[in-house]
Amino acid sequence: MTSAGLQTVVISGASGYIGQHLVRALSADGAEIRMIGRSASNDATWDTPTSLVEVLDGADLLVNLAGRSVSCRYTKRNADSIFVSRTETTAALGRALAATPQPPELWVNASTGTIYRDARDRPMDEVTGELGVGFSVGVARAWEQELFTAPTPVRRIALRMSIVLGAGGGALNPFINLARLGFGGPMGDGGQKLSWVHVDDVAAAITYAHEHRDISGPVNLAAPEVVSNAEMMRQVRTTLGRSRGLPLPTWALEAGARVIRTEPELVLKSRWIDSRVLREAGFTFAHPTLSSALDQVAGRTPRGLLPVALG
């Protein structure tokens, strides 16, 4: 049994970066992991509803991380895939939980801090934050609607994650590569806010939420220290031992995004997220400052250019 009292955890989307880290962290703490995915190697598959009920029965916690990567061009085909991969899997879990004799006490469903508007004036928390507009926001709202309208009495959390940093993947590899290529300066005007969280704190927040039964609804997940894009790149350069980096103006980012088949919004939108619910519940971040997170990542990052998933 883990320190959070977790004996059995069901994870969907376990093959992704966050999912792999969560599996390792919970397994090391003694939890049995049951996985949901599309291949027969998983304990349950999306196209067999009865298998979903079987893996959920008697589990302590369900964590749903399923969803196609947003690091791609938002063509109609990709946009449809992003939308469906999130809403349909969430809806399927809701139906399965309603049919489960002994369902988990908590259902944590991935969401995103991108649900809030572009914010440079103040942080967005779960109470006073203002939702934005556009494709990414629409996906996030539909995703959360499927979670909170699911026909089950299980306690639910929509985990509105900020940009996740960590060694071996996550959102940091492109920043490291740019710095190593000499382009580690500000992106756009560099003033856009960048809320972030270390992947270790993602796992810790999930287990903390399981322990604290008063936590439910939308929950932001971002480290206390928010930085500007320019400051993020400066600290990345410093960590890598590079004193200078060429800036990337907006036009260059838009052109480069076409080449690598992604959207410039991913770095140009100002994301300023406040983890009010977790803070007021007493959660403590292991990596509250960017320098702490980057030092940990640097110690586990090989030399040379790092792999980046292209859309």
Explain the overall architecture:
With 311 residues, the protein is α/β, with parallel strands linked by helices. It has one domain (8-298): NAD(P)-binding Rossmann-like Domain (Rossmann fold, 3-Layer(aba) Sandwich). It is 38% helix and 15% strand. The strands form 3 sheets. It has a 7-stranded parallel sheet with strand order 3-2-1-4-5-6-10, sandwiched between helices. It has a two-stranded parallel sheet with strand order 7-9. Strand 1, helix 1 and strand 2 form a beta-alpha-beta unit. Helix 5 (172-180) crosses helix 7. The longest helix is centred in the N-terminal third of the chain and has 23 residues, at 76-98. The protein is globular and about 60 Å long.
State the helix count.
11
**Alpha-carbon distance between the two ends:** 39 Å
Overall, the morphology is globular
Strand content: 5-15%
Lateral arrangement of strands in the main beta sheet? 3-2-1-4-5-6-10
The value of Rg in angstroms is: 19 Å
Largest sheet data: 7 strands, parallel
Tally of individual domains: 1
H and E order: EHEEHEHEHEEHEEHEEHHHHH
CATH topology: Rossmann fold
The amount of helix comes to: 25-40%
What is the average of the pLDDT values? 94
- Give the structural class: alpha/beta
* Number of E-type strands: 11
CATH architecture: 3-Layer(aba) Sandwich
Provide the CATH superfamily.
Answer: NAD(P)-binding Rossmann-like Domain
**CATH class membership:** Alpha Beta
| Uncertain residue segments | none
